[in-house]
């Protein structure tokens, strides 16, 4: 990512409903290039719902959301600027890791690392040609996270990114997140466990 490109995500007074029920309301947040926020709160309070709404998978009930960039003439939408990694890994078990990552290329485009380079960054190059169905839960998670490194998208939305990762993989993830933020990226994570990165903005959701 071009360090000269500055971006920000502005969320104002957001509320989202699932079915007839309003899950949360009054959520506001401003996130600028280089910043990370963690969304916390008890089970069922709406952390995943908030990330999915920002990703454009769920409609807003009320409130506003905007994305701004400077230093680029490309007027992409927010959906084209984000990576979303849900708590389900969205990998196809019958396909190899290589094939799964190559499908991602078609959807996300590629302008950063190759699939093999991205996998090597997550220290999993040796499983490149194995079917995903052969992998452990933590290895699957690492493959899903490797996708972040293939297409250069400034906003990362990660739902419970630490799930199934051992201590070493957590350290790898923290390093790629720190690099992303240093190069002007933004990240919003829904998590029960803090990632432990400095100056993290806290968004605490409360039951309504
Ligand atoms: N597809 C759905 N249809 C209707 N309600 C849903 C749906 N998915 C989730 N919900 C409800 O929305 C609320 C928020 O769920 P969400 O998954 O966002 O919570 P969460 O804070 O991420 O929880 P957890 O910590 O358990 O992951 C819950 O009450 C849940 O039952």
TrEMBL record:
One GO MF term attached to the UniProt entry: ATP binding
SUPFAM superfamilies: P-loop containing nucleoside triphosphate hydrolases
Cell cycle recorded as keyword: no
GO biological process: cytochrome complex assembly
Top-level taxon in the UniProt lineage: Bacteria
Domain ABC transporter as annotated: residue spans: 9-207
Classification via InterPro entries: AAA+_ATPase (IPR003593), ABC_transporter-like_ATP-bd (IPR003439), ABC_transporter-like_CS (IPR017871), ABC_transptr_haem_export_CcmA (IPR005895), P-loop_NTPase (IPR027417)
Sorted UniProt keywords: ATP-binding, Cytochrome c-type biogenesis, Membrane, Nucleotide-binding, Translocase, Transport
Coiled coil: none
Entry keyword annotation includes Acyltransferase: no
Family indicated by similarity: Belongs to the ABC transporter superfamily.
Main function: Involved in beta-(1-->2)glucan export. Transmembrane domains (TMD) form a pore in the inner membrane and the ATP-binding domain (NBD) is responsible for energy generation.
Name this protein carries in UniProt: Cytochrome C biogenesis protein CcmA
Native species: Bradyrhizobium nanningense
């Amino acid at each position: 990512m071009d360090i000269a490109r500055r971006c920000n995500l502005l969320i104002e007074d957001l509320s989202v409903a699932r079915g007839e029920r309003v899950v949360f309301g009054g959520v506001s947040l401003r996130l600028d290039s280089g910043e990370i926020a963690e969304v916390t709160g008890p089970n069922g309070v709406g952390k995943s719902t908030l990330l999915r709404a920002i990703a454009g998978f769920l409609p807003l009930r009320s409130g506003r959301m905007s994305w701004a960039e400077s230093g680029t003439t490309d007027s992409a939408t927010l959906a084209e600027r984000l990576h979303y990694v849900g708590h389900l890994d969205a990998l196809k078990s019958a396909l190899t890791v290589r094939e799964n990552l190559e499908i991602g290329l078609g959807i996300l485009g590629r302008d950063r690392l190759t699939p093999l380079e991205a996998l090597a960054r997550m220290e999993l190059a040796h499983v490149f040609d194995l079917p995903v169905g052969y992998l452990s839960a933590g290895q699957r998670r690492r493959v899903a996270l490797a996708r972040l490194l293939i297409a250069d998208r400034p906003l990362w939305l990660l739902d419970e990114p630490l799930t199934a990762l051992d201590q070493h993989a957590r350290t790898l993830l923290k390093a790629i997140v720190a690099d992303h933020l240093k190069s002007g990226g933004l990240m919003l994570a829904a998590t029960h466990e803090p990632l432990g990165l400095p100056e993290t903005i806290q968004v605490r959701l409360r039951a309504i």
